[in-house]
Amino acid sequence: MQFSPLIEEMIQALRCLPGVGPKSAQRMAMYLLERDRKGGETLANTLSRAMAEVGHCESCRTLTEEKLCRVCASGKRNHSVVCVVETPADMLALEQTGAYDGRYFVLLGHLSPLEGIGPDDLGFDELLQKLKDEPVEEVILATNPTLEGETTAQYLVELLAPLDVKVTHLAQGIPLGGELEYLDGGTLSRAFAGRRGFDQEASS
Amino acid sequence: MQFSPLIEEMIQALRCLPGVGPKSAQRMAMYLLERDRKGGETLANTLSRAMAEVGHCESCRTLTEEKLCRVCASGKRNHSVVCVVETPADMLALEQTGAYDGRYFVLLGHLSPLEGIGPDDLGFDELLQKLKDEPVEEVILATNPTLEGETTAQYLVELLAPLDVKVTHLAQGIPLGGELEYLDGGTLSRAFAGRRGFDQEASS
């Protein structure tokens, strides 16, 4: 015995969402059908539009339904700095700090031979072209501090070496609000190696 | 700074799902946009069809896109027993045991004055009509063993008292595979009160 075919289909379709197993999918389906038909309809419509219309910014590759994302379309950004991130969510996190006024380049992933993701999938050619065409002076590599992220950054460092552009990465060290006791050895070693005098503000 | 308007709308829409907060919704949206457009489209289509087409079985009120659910449409079920459950998911759980061959009546909720759910919302009139029109001999009240479920069952016991029909409820006691040590006192008290001889199979 199962639910009726359409309900079973709906439960199956909900399982495409990350972190949703059979029981959660059933719970979600029952909730929408019993209590929130309007929410379900809105979700269906929005999802359908988003899947069809959301593409990539022509300049930085982030996800957007417009030709250029808001950052690239803005006239107020510093065109001499490009920050390379892995995902649109990383870009959003950096934007929300308000600490950066340059532009971005979104790789939409990281190098991962196991998953078959190589340089071609991450838009490295586009990035090189951009650096040749535009007056970029500095590239900040802000990939994640994971094995794949650092490998990707290292690859980019070598790729960008021949160009006349400064390549930097985000400072690594102890995060704010943490306790030294609970930090991993790798983070502490890097924090030691990168220690700075109290009079240094932002060296280059 | 936020994502582009359509992506923000999608994240908002995903939050109608139970158990999905702002961070999960963002993760789901990014996953669908970056990695599973096809799954997202299927979900949108199925959801839209389900919201429009799934209604209630004319006989037992369970969720189905057909006029009659499979149980009510089946010619093989025992028409003299009706099992009253709170939700379609409860009905499914009982069906999957294979231990019951009668029919169901789905309340689609339980009495809850706080949420404004009264007898009218739970189809009690329909149930009474059904019991008058059809040759039902026994009604099994299988509401959940919660405060609301038991209140609902008690209300039904009084409502059905004038009718010439046997009203029963599911046996209460220790669940299989548990350990007595970890069971709550209420369950253990009921198990004591309902203890049975080893020669009793199914008394009535």
Summarize the structure.
Chain A is of the alpha/beta class.
Question: What do you see in this structure?
Answer:
The longest helix of chain A has 17 residues, at 37-53. Among the domains of chain A are: 5-49, RecR Domain 1 (Helicase, Ruva Protein, domain 3), CATH 1.10.8.420; 78-171, 3-Layer(aba) Sandwich (Dna Topoisomerase Vi A Subunit, Chain: A, domain 2). The model of chain A has no long low-confidence stretch (mean pLDDT 92). Chain A contains eight helices and six strands; from the N terminus they run αααββαβαβαβαβα. Chain A is 43% helix and 10% strand. Chain A has a four-stranded parallel sheet. Chain A has a two-stranded antiparallel ribbon with strand order 1-2. With 204 residues, chain A is α/β, with parallel strands linked by helices.
